[in-house]
Amino acid sequence: MIENLFTSTSIPVAEQVAHFAQARHQVLAGNLANIDTPGYRTRDLSVTQFQQRLKQAIVEQQQSPQPESESSRTHASSRPMEKVKEGIGTILHHDDSNVGVEHQVTEIAKNQMQHNLAMTIMGNQFRLLQAAISERA
Known about the structure:
elongated
């Protein structure tokens, strides 16, 4: 029942966006740290592929909501949103453009804003749930 309470909100989507932003931040920070390393090729996580996987997971979750059962709790990878998180490592690619520091810093800033937005949405959703549970509006 509690599982259904959380999956019916935007919390799972915001959680996956936050996970992606965290993973991408690590990759971008590595690019910045190695910017002067001879022969280093910048890397990034594909935002487009992540968005496609997230969209697919949202559609799957809306089409077939799973009732809470022992098997769904033990097999987290069978849930659509968990598949998005598990697939983050497979969308890493090398950017052969090897752009400079300015581009990397810009991407880090954009990624930070995306992470902050996801955390704000999650915080708001949790406050709404808390108000509903405590019967205060």
